[in-house]
Amino acid sequence: MYVTRAGSGGPPLFFVHGLACDATDWRAQVDAFAPRTTVAACDLPGHGSSPGATADCTIDAYGAAVAQALADLELPPAILVGHSMGCRVLLAANRARPGAVAGLVFVDGSRIGAGDPEAAGQTMADELVGDGYLRFMRQFFESMFVPSSDPAVAQVIIDRALRFPAELGRPLLRNLATWDAAEMEGALDAVDVPVLAIQSTTMDTARERVSLTTGLTSPWIDLLRAHIPQAGVAILAGTSHYPQIERSGEVNALITEFALNEQTFPQEGLTQA
Prior knowledge:
Blueprint: E1 2-6, E2 13-16, H1 27-33, E3 39-43, H2 59-72, E4 78-83, H3 85-96, E5 101-107, H4 117-127, H5 132-142, H6 151-162, H7 166-182, H8 184-189, E6 195-199, E7 201-203, E8 209-211, H9 219-227, E9 232-235, H10 243-246, H11 248-261
Parallel strand pairs: 2-3, 2-4, 4-5, 5-6, 6-9
Antiparallel strand pairs: 1-3, 7-8
């Protein structure tokens, strides 16, 4: 798995992107934190610069890959930061190598599968047959943005998603729905490190993203609070599914505050920028 590394010091920050995305989504965070601590960002197998076969592209395989990367980099316990699908990968990595994790930051997580795992996976698979895959990906990603989003940035992300190969995307989406139903709650119960959730959207019954307003919650946040009552939650209202890009300063400040509160970053030199 391709991993970029910058900076020095600790504890490290390790960034994990979402479905059909790559490490460049974290450019603003890498640039902000690399002068202050060790920063790493990965391209999950099958994404960006990392090759990947179908067997490599499951939530548990991704979690194992992140856990192995932490070992290969010989990093001290790290704060893992995940976006969207990457939130699931963080949970899988924490179960695979809990001693390597100092904290978890979830950026706009969600849950798309519940109930019977096989049924959840099959429902997703049925939706992706034939040209259903491209139709799903276009609708799914176009709904992630709001009118105030930069149309050029949005189009780059949508086009990148539409290039994600169906031979990887179909089984990955099926696995994602199955994992949500079968594994997510147990993975949340396994968390025993500090947690911060930065949430900007929720998902409606048509699996379209809806921007949150102040005071509004989401099924994912409700689930998180049920299993990790002590988790911190920050709502970024009126923005898209990509707050790390569109509201990078606020996301960076929240990560900084989380790290300082947990006494994981040295105070000296660290600002709330």
